[in-house]
Amino acid sequence: MQGVTFPGDRRTVLKEFSDPEPGPGEVVVRMRASGMCGSDLHFYRGTASFGGGENTIQGHEPCGDVHAVGPGVTADMASVGDRVMIHHYWGCDACEHCRSGWPQMCDRQNGQTLSITAHGGHAPYMVVPARTLLPLPDALSYKAGAAIGCGTGTAWGGIKRLGDIGGATMVVMGQGPVGLSGTMFAAALGARVVAVDVKDARLDRAREFGAAEVVNSAETDLAEAIADITGGRGAEVILETSGVAGADALEILGKWGRACFIGLPGDVGFRTEQQYKKQWTLMTSWTMSSVEQARCAEFVVTHRLPVDGLYTHSWSLDRAAEAYAWFDEQADGKGVFEF
Ligand SMILES: [Zn+2]
Ligand SMILES: [Zn+2]
Question: What residues of the chain score a pLDDT lower than 50?
Answer without folding.
Answer: none
